Amino acid sequence: MIAAHLKPPYYAVIFTALLTDNIEGYIETAERMEELAKEQEGYLGIESARNDVGITVSYWEDLNAITRWKNQVEHTEARERGRKQWYQQYQLRICKVEREYGFVKQ
Amino acid sequence: MIAAHLKPPYYAVIFTALLTDNIEGYIETAERMEELAKEQEGYLGIESARNDVGITVSYWEDLNAITRWKNQVEHTEARERGRKQWYQQYQLRICKVEREYGFVKQ
């Protein structure tokens, strides 16, 4: 899914990850985290794709919403399990979306 | 590949796309655009993944570098072909990266 029709300024969290060979429980947890993110105040949207590298971009109204999501208990537990088991490497970037353009084929 | 070790502030272009069924020439052009982006002044890195949706995030030193890349002739031609043939829908976001965190398994 593409998260369209958002109005800058707002925030994006770009999460890029390489997994280990031990991904038991990963898919279920990733799906649960996506459902949980959608329930958070200030959540705007999410986009996700995976090949050898996985990219998840989540969109938020402001930095406070990102901080609350970071501190959400179940999300914190999932992140800790991720560092112990699933992630070989990741990079997380917090960005202010300043402009955006959309295209839909007619 | 994960683009790590970049120092905020810098800029990210998040490009999210759904393709049509007519992707003749798409892969070759996407690879050529990635090579060409790497040659541009102010280019910092690129991350890309695809399932049903494709996400490409490119990183740039400043907004001027993004504008130059937007106006680069071969890139402009590829984008026009993309709108005519390959893209069902896309969303392009220009973002200022304010903070980042990295993790590498020891």
From TrEMBL, chains A, B:
It holds the Pfam family ABM. One of its GO terms (molecular function) is monooxygenase activity. InterPro entries: ABM_dom, Dimeric_a/b-barrel, Jasmonate_Hydroxylase-like. Keywords: Monooxygenase, Oxidoreductase. Gene3D superfamilies: 3.30.70.100. The keyword Transferase does not apply. It comes from the Bacteria. The keyword Oxidoreductase applies. Its EC number is 1.14.-.-. This is Antibiotic biosynthesis monooxygenase. It comes from Asprobacillus argus.
